[in-house]
Amino acid sequence: MSKVRHVLGISGGKDSTALAIYLRKKYPDLEIEYYFCDTGKELPETYSLLNGLESFLGKKIKRLLAAPNSPIDPFDHFIDLYRGFIPSSNARWCTQKLKLEPFERFVGDDPVISYVGIRGDELREGYISKKSNIQSIFPFRKNIWSEDVINKVMNNRNIELLCDYYNDIKCSYNIKNYLEILKRPISFNFVQSQKLSLLMKLGIKEFNKVVFRFLKTTDYPLAKEEHFPLIENNEILIKEDIFKILKESNVGIPQYYNLIEFEVGGEKGFYNRSRSGCFFCFFQQKIEWVWLYENHNELFLKAIEYEKEGYTWMQDESLLELVQPDRVKQIKEYHLKKSAQYSSKKSEYLLDILDEEDERGCAACFI
């Protein structure tokens, strides 16, 4: 039987970095392998963060390359393969080729627990591998289990089994409170999310213990583990907690989050980048492209080189059009207007207007 591997992907962003720090401090006995899918097109701030995180962890972060034998970097290897067809939100070959496939080659067929840094204040599930040997765990959330696990556990045909499991553990409330909820089947009038919420409200640790026991009846990787310390965890971490972890560890936040002042029309504003990923990520907003143009001009010029007739990073305009003086002014003015709408939200890092409004990003950049 293969040993269960515990892995954590570092995207270069705040959440995955904070998760690595959090698990290292709280569960030092977990033998976690850290990895980073290197596209070859990352910001210099990302590589700086990786070096600082390695120093804190006392462990190397394995760099995964999508085309390890190619004489050019991974992105350029595939852009050549696809004859200059650059990725977009409708054709995200970069996600599949540069992130997911290297990760799945890295873990192979070994049973794997993959820790994912989705916060307790985010309403998204994140990437879940379709490979049966990879199980995702979300330590920052109230519910650490992935959606596929919850669907299996909460199935109506398991009602009696779950009642038996709850009867076997010491519950924080009267067992009748749990059984009353458990015995009510999921229906159109009582959906799964309601039942889950009620059970977790009574006791997160109790629910985790029951799920862990249930997993012993399945082929999930955790079925092979005798113990799993995270079932005793009931912390819920949100964005403010993430920044606190980064600061207190001295690893610090990714430098591209630092606010930079600009002036337009006699007014002063601030901009930064809101996410990790390739410097030409098509998910970034217009003000982030302006940030790149003004703070990493050499990278912006490289991004322009990929644009050809019919292939642009944004559907509505090219990068050359975006950096015309009048257009830059227009984008900054719009950003100032939008910033004013969030002026009541105070934070040392502004906790980023861009991030508040749009956290789509590349799903694989957060694995």
Characterize the structure shown.
- This protein has 367 residues and is of the alpha/beta class.
- The chain has three domains: 5-146 and 235-249, Rossmann fold, CATH 3.40.50.620; 150-232, no CATH class; 255-366, no CATH class.
- 42% of the residues lie in helices and 9% in strands.
- It has a five-stranded parallel β-sheet. A two-stranded antiparallel ribbon has the order 6-7.
- Helix 7 (175-182) runs antiparallel to helix 8 (192-202) and helix 8 (192-202) packs across helix 9 (204-215).
- The longest helix has 17 residues, at 325-341.
Key descriptive features of the protein:
single chain; about 375 residues; alpha/beta; Rossmann fold; 3 domains; 5-stranded parallel sheet; two-stranded antiparallel sheet; 15 helices; 7 strands; globular
List the helices and strands and how they pair.
Blueprint lengths: L4 E5 L4 H13 L5 E6 L6 H14 L3 E4 L9 H8 L11 H15 L4 E4 L18 E4 L9 H7 L5 H10 L6 H8 L9 H11 L1 H12 L23 H11 L10 E5 L2 E5 L14 H10 L1 H10 L12 H4 L2 H17 L11 H5 L10
Parallel strand pairs: 1-2, 1-4, 2-3, 4-5
Antiparallel strand pairs: 6-7
Helix pairs in contact: 1-10, 6-7, 7-8, 8-9, 11-12
